[in-house]
Specification:
2 copies of one chain form a homodimer. In chain A, 74% of the residues lie in helices and 0% in strands. Chain A is mainly alpha-helical. Chain A binds a DNA duplex through helix 2 and helix 3.
Chain lengths: 195, 195
DNA sequence: GGAGTTCTGTACCGATCACTCCAGAAAGAC
DNA sequence: GTCTTTCTGGAGTGATCGGTACAGAACTCC
């Protein structure tokens, strides 16, 4: 019927996401994107509309992957709930102090765009809420198992915990040493256990 | 000897800072800056060099003001130390959920530039460290007064506390409700008191 | 082998970017 | 007043921005 596409849309979105992650939205030009994806402008615009829409696709992709990843990392038996939270926190500290200093695409987007772009803000907010819900569930498990005192609302505990993780991401971007980020992550976990 | 300047440099820097705060570095054009400051391009370049240098001036200005402000807010007798920390945390939560959603210029800059701009990263890091030092001092006061248990290192406590404040700023940008940010701020203070 | 349709790469668009240049204005020195 | 010097504002710079137009390529269907 017609000429078929020569590219895989998900591969292209992944390449664009990578590029946006490196330099942010505004500082990534269409020229950068054509180089990163290997596509010409015609194909890019034909498939995705414009830069903004391509970015939204990449961001949605990232958020879905992040939500999926945290669910994988935190779900399990009540027994190891606190240990899973600890491992997650350590992972955030490690990622945030990675040499490339890209940080988290969601956090970067939130700070760069959420104030001016309602759609980006909505995705950011709902993703953060989803992450927090996963953490709250895991905290509740730890409460059931006796590792976290039961008198506090797990949602409140999860809210502070996620906020601290966002802070670790920002401090990592500023260049805070990995050891210090680890200390903060450990303290965030410890705070859960003392009510 | 020669024609004198018709503008006050500090006023101009303040106007530029305001503009940068609203839209960030990349998204603020020189045209925006001439409008915001009232100066022509000739004067702007003559006095500050280029956009990057003007931004650095504005950022330095902001960081100095922020450091000064937190010192003012936290210094006082041992007696009210914990209350001052609480007031500070509440203030961060309120500012972060302000309607204009500008957030904190330092946090915005960190996320936008620190990964690519060594000078901006250095200013951000040292400012965050200065803020943390002020908080650590105030925590130590609260320990002396008995409001915060003495067994923990005040610097560690201050590190988590500041990280959580950074997180509140990010979540505020995403659109998190003020009440929730307040809950997080309260929990961050509460965490200090339980060791 | 057309016909029909969609995809692909590129040339091109006006707008805007950061930045430079320069003629004239405004001051003190004499 | 005149000279010298610096400041001022706007016109003009090439480069780059996001986005469009379009000719030809690649495919299926008949």
């Amino acid at each position: 019927m017609a000429r078929p596409r020569e590219f895989d849309e998900t591969v292209v979105v992944a390449a664009a996401r990578e590029r946006f992650h490196e330099t942010g939205y505004a500082a990534t030009s269409l020229d950068d994107l054509t180089k990163a994806t290997g596509l010409g402008k015609g194909s890019l615009y034909g498939a995705f509309g414009d830069k903004r829409h391509l970015f939204q696709r990449a961001l949605d992709d990232y958020c879905a992957a992040a939500t999926e990843a945290i669910a994988q990392a935190l779900r399990g038996p009540d027994d190891g709930a606190l240990a899973r939270l600890q491992a997650y926190a350590t992972g955030v500290a490690n990622d945030s102090s990675a040499r490339d200093r890209r940080g988290c695409l969601l956090a970067n987007t939130t700070v760069e765009l959420a104030g001016r772009d309602a759609e980006a803000a909505a995705v950011a907010l709902s993703t953060y809420e989803a992450l927090e819900a996963e953490i709250a569930a895991c905290v509740a498990q730890a409460q059931r198992h006796g590792d976290v005192p039961g008198q506090s609302d797990p949602h409140d505990l999860a809210a502070v915990f996620t906020a601290t993780m966002r802070g670790v991401e920002v401090l990592g971007k500023a260049g805070t040493a990995r050891r210090k980020l680890r200390t903060i992550a450990d303290a965030a976990v410890h705070a859960l256990t003392v009510g």
